[in-house]
Amino acid sequence: MIIESLRTTTEFHRLAADIPGPGSLRTLAGLGGSSPAVLAAALVEAGAVRSLLLVAPTAPAAEEVEADLEALVPGRARVFPQRESVHPDLADPHIEISARRVDALQAIIVGRSRILVTTGRALGERFTVPASWADLEIRLEPQQELDRDTLLVDLDRAGYKKVSMVEAVGEYSVRGGIIDIYPITTLDPVRLEFWGDRIESVRSFDILDQRSIAHLESVRLLPVTFPGQASSGPSEADVSSQTTGNLLELLPETTLVLQIDTDKEEDERRRSWDELRRRTETPQSYQDDPEAARSKLDRFGRLCVVPSQADADLDFAISATPIIDRRIDRLIAAVREAAGTGARVLILCDNEGQLERLEEIIADAASRAILRQITLGLGPLAAGFVLAGADPPLWIFTAPAGRAAAPRPPAGQRWRRSRPSQPATTWSTSTTVSVATGDWNE
Questions:
Q1: Is the dihedral of CA 168, 129, 303, 13 positive or negative?
Q2: What gap in Å lies between CA 308 and CA 290, rounded to an integer?
Q3: Cα distance between residue 5 and residue 197, in whole Å
Q4: Residue (of 50, 49, 26, 121) closest to 80 by Cα position
Q5: Distance (Å, rounded) from C-alpha 204 to C-alpha 210?
Q6: Which stretches within 314-388 are classed as H helix?
Q7: 86 and 159: one domain?
Q8: Structural domain includes residue 126
């Protein structure tokens, strides 16, 4: 619904018909709320671009954008997180960070994903690169002939940690002919049962009670660190002797880059570069200097979001929705304003409980005619917005605008500890709702 509405706008048609090629730049204005993520999804879904790199200025902003994309196009986007620290002699304290970096880059290079989200700082970070990204993958399936000890050696080389009981991503355990592995590529850990040198079964299991969840036809394993990089972190000597690269050197030149805030992005790169220069005599081994990173960026086709309409090639005129501040009376006033323009209204909720509660307290404040223009849905975006140029116009209200939303966990935690929620493109069919003045909460 959201993506389809954006695709009806004149500005989207103009952009999709004239995507900037390598070395070209187009500036965009009027992209309020979560609309940059919607634009990225719409361009990929429409086939206007083969792959898209969305650059957020900071790590929290990148996680927010990735969460929006997961709600819009589940499983289609990956986030390439920046290192926890720019210090060259400190490893990422969470193996999940390095594992997500491997998964994201392999996914975009071999074509499993078409949208990659990252930060301005991560663009310049250098890391060891494998000879072949496709060869990083290990695929396991029932009845496969495989030497058990060889698999254990491969797991050690891939950065997995041997433990007595698997509890987190990047761990494995061995009990006789049973090997438990928690790869980055699955929601739950997997259990392999061997009979000699043959895999008898592959099952997912619950990390809490250890009970099997489902039999799997196959499972795909990826390293949890980049090849040649120990989990304790790279040393100065290690880096100097390894082949390194960065995102901008590895991505196809046909990749379209969407930059949300170039000024903040440059500031972050400059800040991390200055810190590296204070900590090491060879900062270029770990990160490109800001000028080099900018030069590499310029080789790609780019879309840059700018604040001023006067500086933009295209103005989408997408504005933020009115501030609701948990007030149902304000929500109803905004809904009435939207309905007066003939617009549809989409109210996104965090969960089923909030949606049901909202339906209950919408009593008699809206007319039947207005109710027909309201849709309630699951899968909240970070910020609502108004698509005035859509046909018909669409007003989107989401949990952060409508109530004090609970903090959304980082993307890595979502895929590790919870089941995927209903995507934001699938909506509740219930539109017979009414409103009462007051607050709405879970």
A1: negative
A2: 25
A3: 54
A4: 121
A5: 9
A6: 328-340, 352-361, 368-371
A7: no
A8: yes
- CATH number, residue 188: 3.30.2060.10
| Structural domains of the chain, count | 3
Domain-embedded: residue 441? no
Q: Are residues 266 and 246 part of one domain?
A: yes
Q: How far apart are CA 41 and CA 72, in angstroms?
A: 7
- Quick one: 293 and 400 in the same domain? no
Identify whether residues 105 and 188 lie together within a single domain.
no
Q: What is the pTM of this model?
A: 0.76
437 occurs within a structural domain:
no
Helix/strand/coil for 219: strand
Q: Which residue has the tokens 């700018």?
A: 306
Per-residue confidence of the chain (442 residues) as pLDDT tens digits? Answer: 899 999 999 999 999 999 999 999 999 999 999 999 999 999 999 999 989 999 999 999 999 999 999 989 998 899 999 988 876 565 545 677 888 888 888 888 777 889 999 999 999 998 877 766 666 778 899 999 999 999 999 998 888 999 999 998 889 999 999 999 998 778 899 999 999 999 999 999 998 888 999 999 999 888 887 655 544 444 444 444 457 788 898 888 889 999 999 999 999 999 999 999 998 888 988 899 999 999 999 999 999 999 988 889 999 999 988 888 777 788 888 888 888 888 998 988 878 887 887 777 664 566 666 777 788 888 778 999 999 999 999 999 886 443 333 334 434 333 332 233 334 333 332 333 333 333 444 3
Residue 161 and residue 262 in one domain: no
Residue type, 200: E
SS (H, E, C) 386-436: EECCCCCCEEEECHHHHCCCCCCCCHHHHHHHCCCCCCCCCECCCCCCCEC
List the domain range (segments joined by +) for residue 251.
2-131+232-313
Q: Judging by DSSP bridges, how do beta strands 138-140 and 127-128 pair with one another?
A: unpaired
Angstrom distance (rounded) from CA 317 to CA 28:
10
Pair 406, 295 in one domain = no
Q: What single letter denotes the amino acid at residue 297?
A: L
What DSSP character marks residue 47? T
